[in-house]
Specification:
This protein is α/β, with parallel strands linked by helices. The protein has one domain: 3-Layer(aba) Sandwich (Rossmann fold). A hairpin with an 8-residue loop joins strand 4 and strand 5. The longest helix is centred in the first third of the chain and has 15 residues. Its main location: cytoplasm. It is found in: Cytoplasm. This is Putative gluconeogenesis factor. Keywords: Cytoplasm.
């Protein structure tokens, strides 16, 4: 599936971005991850609160994806089998969490490495580049903003009157609310983008957005004005991957079509080329026709493909890569 000379930039966060990066690595080694920076839970939340830094967790996961992707390891095996073994171990090391009940409990090694380097350099981009260099990783990982962000949402269904919304603040709170998020904002409002990230969007041949936690990992990318402008003006082919299933909490009860309507409500000027959905998620018929109209609001063509790991709500990276390659090669 390798496409010579392809430059790809993937936007997202968490496990959704991990899978997309794994997929893109089948197509090219020139992959840049642009990652959300609003996490306030777990290890990332603790380090963010203690050090005042950008939360490292999603950045670490993106780095581990580029390092441990099957295609990346296969590239290494062709030239240096021992290097492939080291990369596989290092990817596992970055993800390993300390056990026990003390101060280190729950912290992944990669979070501590990245936080330490960021403190030493005073710049999370420089810290990420140093880890890329240290571990000899192809590609790049970048934050979408240079400061830690807070997600705030208007949530309905928490009051006796369904017309009344309550403001919920924090990524974890938004992701786990029993109510229904209607709209999200970033604090600070209109944050400055990471300039290297916007450059990567403009220089790419392919830009992907999603899948992932819709309100906390996907929509935030269109709430950074400079990054949205880069998405609007890039000549790259833009592919939007919609979640296979609704996510408990954030998008409980959402149809695939509803995901698109919510994104459009936050960025009506966004245009993409392909809206890519799993065939089993949207059966042929009236539901798919409605989805085609929703995709048209982005100026996009609806693309339906077999994308999931059987029996799960997770994208299969190999199937995702094959779908992307077919779309790129059709022109």
């Amino acid at each position: 599936m390798r496409i010579d000379g392809l430059k790809a930039t993937a936007l997202g966060g968490g496990h959704g971005l991990f899978n997309t990066l794994t997929a893109l690595r089948y197509l090219t080694a020139d992959v840049t991850a642009v990652v959300t920076v609003a996490d306030d839970g777990g290890s990332s939340g603790r380090l963010r609160a203690e050090l005042g830094q950008i939360p490292p967790g999603d950045l670490r996961m993106a780095l581990a994806a580029l390092m441990g992707a099957p295609a990346a390891l296969e590239d290494r095996r062709r030239t240096d089998p021992r290097a492939a073994e080291r990369h596989e171990r290092w990817a596992q090391m970055l993800q390993h969490r300390f056990g026990g009940y003390g101060a280190l409990a729950g912290h992944p090694i990669g979070n501590l490495l990245l936080s330490g380097l960021a403190e030493m350099t005073g710049d999370v981009v420089a810290a990420l580049d140093q880890l890329i260099d240290l571990f000899d990783v192809d590609g790049r990982v970048l934050p979408m903003a240079n400061v830690p962000l807070v997600i705030e949402a208007d949530v309905s269904g928490l009051e006796s009157d369904p017309r009344v919304s309550r403001v919920i603040r924090g990524q974890v709170a938004v992701a786990t609310t029993p109510g229904k998020p209607r709209r999200v904002r970033l604090i600070p409002e209109a944050p400055g983008a990471c300039q290297v990230a916007t450059e990567a969007i403009r220089a790419a041949d392919v830009v992907t957005l999603g899948p992932g936690s819709w309100f906390s990992s996907v929509i935030p990318h269109v709430l950074v004005p400079e990054q949205l402008d880069a998405l609007r003006t890039t000549s790259a082919r833009k592919m939007l991957f919609v979640n296979l299933v609704a996510e408990p909490g954030e998008t409980t009860g959402f149809s695939v079509e509803r995901h698109l309507h919510v994104l459009h409500a936050h960025a009506s000027s966004l245009r993409v080329d392909d809206v890519i959905v799993d065939a089993a998620s949207v059966p042929a018929g009236l539901e798919r026709e409605h989805l085609e109209r929703a995709a048209d609001r982005f100026g996009a063509r609806l693309r339906v493909s077999d994308l999931c790991v059987p029996g799960t709500g997770v994208h299969d990276p190999a199937k995702t890569a094959a779908t992307m390659a077919a779309l790129i090669n059709e022109n």
